[in-house]
Task: inverse folding
């Protein structure tokens, strides 16, 4: 136990002494947190669906949970069921073999639901495009609110995309 | 490579292939197909991959290929089949061939003679049963209105047995696949996987591309192994084009590959701690991984090093100051990872979950062909960096990390050992890297060429085989992920364990869905 405590003490909070690039992010992070609270007044629950990606986008979504980005600290939680989710994060071109599963997941998310397409393939079909095996971009299969390009997009872009989706929806409601 | 010895031992007309690892190719006849497999198996060789190509445009027919790893290196055997001709089954000798043969049928329409399991594997019903995308008469752009079909999972009978169906969408940030557990209470009697959900037709997309263009696809076969795939693809392409890449490019490729290995091992060690309830493991290791990939971004312009390895060399060079910054990061990482290893090793609760969970004993591992990192944790002492000694690893003397216990704890231990070995290799690379250019011009690929690349990625050895057509463009490019061998072994690893240990055991293998489904 003392080893763990020593390790915690020694590594401290990474966000307290960030490198230069993270300075901007620190203020960005505060802003995002207050916006989420303003817009939703609560936490944001996300269900991630890999509809056929190469798994690089998944690595970057995973990175959002590391202590640098610490999305749970912002009130954003990745949940296990689409029924618990406010927003779907979808990666990959949608393969024909995943088309139906994605539609089912979308239908299971309670209204009002948001969809953010993550990565080049989800935005445009990317290098895989449309074929006998691929439906191409996510919006060919379910409605998409925001697209986040990049191969893969860095975590900060994914976070901005999530927030844009939330604020676009709230503007749509006339708030 | 001693071609004479191979030709004599197997009675085949073997010719050497140029490229990364030592390799040879031979045309064989149908009656030799099983005979050679049995001989390879008896000598302790392994099946690497099996695939097929439609070569009608070259005046040939369907040609199926199998690659074995034998003592001398890779042996690529090719069997030409007549129309409607079946090919002999290899799954009785190498069980891992079963799924490869099923995929071969789904993609090319070539049937295995007398196969025990002829269920579709990649085709889930979204395209017709008589549509085979790799046949040259199809463009791959065809669209169909067929529907998903039920899959005939093996039923387990008996009192109190019930099924748990999981996926294709899993809880968490995971790739899609379906797992069907047959359980009694909490105990797993049987697991059957159904994969193919991320199949996006990569094999067909390669067809007709130029050698230079194909690497972009190779980088996106499995994003976590982008360096390994790109390197294996380039080694195959450079072998066909007889392109000698500059020595500095070879060393930079090794540097990138070892960085990719460390990044993935860090992520896995964090997730393994978390899956066993030690949340601090996840936060500490993901912190280290973030530091690691941020320096990638700074020095190479990409967090996961995508699109840097290209045919002819690499697109980025490092100056001395940049090499120094890498060396400093290695020092820091060594210290941090050692501190975390002491915590993992000394944590009774964690070790209680790790030890004996998901055990694959060496005998079973050898029978089923378990390979890569998981194989080394079950006594399968194969590492292409050591036994193939392709450049620059022939000058680096890699120490292979192995273990005999074959449980989650062993796979954790091998990951830790490999991190420290890769850090040592990185320091050696930074000290000894030769100077000079980092890219050489790639000549037009010759017509009707064959090339194979073989690179030890973090998960295991990745093989890419390229065949060119009579314009020097890609006729067929086959990418093989070690997950093909290891997915079926995971079905055995979980037997007798409890359902709640499955995430932990699965993570300890961390196999690729994208790299398997293509």
Result:
């Amino acid at each position: 136990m003392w080893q763990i405590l020593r390790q915690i003490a020694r590594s401290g909070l990474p966000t307290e002494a960030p490198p230069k690039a993270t300075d901007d992010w620190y203020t960005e992070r505060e802003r995002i947190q207050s916006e989420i609270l303003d817009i939703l007044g609560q936490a944001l629950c996300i269900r991630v669906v890999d509809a056929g990606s190469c798994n690089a986008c998944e690595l970057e979504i995973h990175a959002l949970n590391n202590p640098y980005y610490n999305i749970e600290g912002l009130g954003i939680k990745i949940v296990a069921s689409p029924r618990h989710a406010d927003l779907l994060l979808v990666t990959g071109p949608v393969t024909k073999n995943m088309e139906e599963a994605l539609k089912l997941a979308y239908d299971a998310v309670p209204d009002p639901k948001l969809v953010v397409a993550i990565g080049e393939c989800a935005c445009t079909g990317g290098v895989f495009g449309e074929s006998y095996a691929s439906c191409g971009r996510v919006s060919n299969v379910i409605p998409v609110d925001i697209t986040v390009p990049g191969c893969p997009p860095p975590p900060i872009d994914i976070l901005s995309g999530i927030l844009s989706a939330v604020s676009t929806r709230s503007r749509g409601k006339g708030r | 490579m001693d071609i004479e010895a191979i030709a004599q031992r197997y009675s085949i007309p073997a010719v050497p292939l140029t490229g990364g690892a030592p390799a040879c190719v031979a045309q064989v006849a149908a009656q030799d197909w099983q005979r050679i497999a049995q001989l390879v198996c008896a000598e302790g060789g392994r099946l690497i991959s099996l695939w097929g190509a439609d070569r009608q445009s070259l005046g040939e027919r369907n040609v199926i290929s199998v690659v074995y790893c034998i003592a001398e290196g890779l042996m690529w055997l090719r069997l030409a089949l007549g129309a409607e001709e079946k090919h002999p089954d290899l799954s009785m000798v190498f069980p891992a061939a079963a799924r490869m043969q099923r995929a071969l049928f789904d993609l090319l329409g070539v049937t295995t003679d007398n196969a025990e399991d002829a269920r579709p594997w990649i085709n889930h019903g979204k395209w017709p049963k008589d549509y085979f995308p790799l046949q040259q008469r199809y463009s791959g752009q065809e669209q169909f209105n067929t529907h998903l079909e039920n899959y005939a999972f093996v039923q387990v009978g008996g009192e109190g047995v019930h099924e748990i169906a999981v996926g294709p969408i899993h809880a968490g940030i995971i790739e899609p696949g379906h797992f069907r557990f047959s359980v009694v209470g909490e105990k797993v009697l049987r697991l059957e996987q159904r994969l193919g959900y991320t199949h996006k037709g990569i094999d067909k997309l390669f067809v007709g591309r130029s050698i230079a263009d194909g690497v972009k696809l190779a980088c996106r076969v499995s994003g976590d192994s982008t360096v390994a795939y790109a390197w294996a693809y380039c080694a195959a392409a450079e072998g066909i084009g007889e392109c000698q890449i500059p020595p500095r490019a070879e060393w930079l490729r090794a540097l990138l590959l070892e960085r990719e290995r460390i990044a993935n091992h860090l992520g896995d060690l964090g997730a393994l701690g978390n899956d066993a309830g030690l949340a601090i493991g996840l936060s500490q290791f993901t912190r280290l991984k973030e530091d690691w990939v941020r320096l990638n971004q700074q020095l190479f312009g990409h967090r996961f090093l995508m699109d840097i390895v290209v045919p002819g060399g690499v697109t980025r060079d490092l100056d001395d100051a940049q090499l120094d910054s890498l060396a400093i990061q290695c020092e820091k990482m060594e210290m941090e990872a050692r501190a975390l290893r002491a915590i993992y090793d000394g944590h009774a609760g964690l070790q209680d979950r790790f030890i004996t969970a998901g055990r694959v004993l060496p005998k079973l591992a050898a029978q089923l062909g378990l390979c890569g990192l998981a194989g080394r944790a079950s006594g399968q002492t194969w590492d292409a960096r050591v036994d193939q000694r392709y450049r620059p690893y022939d000058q680096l003397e890699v120490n292979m990390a192995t273990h005999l216990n074959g449980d989650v704890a062993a796979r954790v231990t091998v990951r830790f050992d490999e991190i420290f070995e890769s850090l040592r290799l990185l320091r050696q690379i930074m000290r000894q890297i030769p100077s000079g250019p980092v890219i050489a011009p790639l000549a037009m690929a010759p017509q009707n060429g064959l090339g194979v690349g073989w690179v030890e990625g973090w998960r295991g050895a990745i093989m890419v085989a390229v065949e060119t057509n009579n314009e020097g463009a890609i006729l067929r490019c086959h990418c093989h992920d070690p997950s093909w061998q290891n997915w079926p072994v995971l079905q055995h690893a979980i037997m007798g364990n409890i359902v709640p240990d499955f995430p932990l055991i699965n993570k300890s293998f961390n196999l690729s869905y994208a790299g398997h489904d293509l």
Remarks:
- The domain at 3-108 of chain B is CATH 3.30.460.80 (Beta Polymerase; domain 2).
- The two ends of chain B are 31 Å apart (CA to CA).
- Chain B touches chain A through 61 residues (CB under 8 Å).
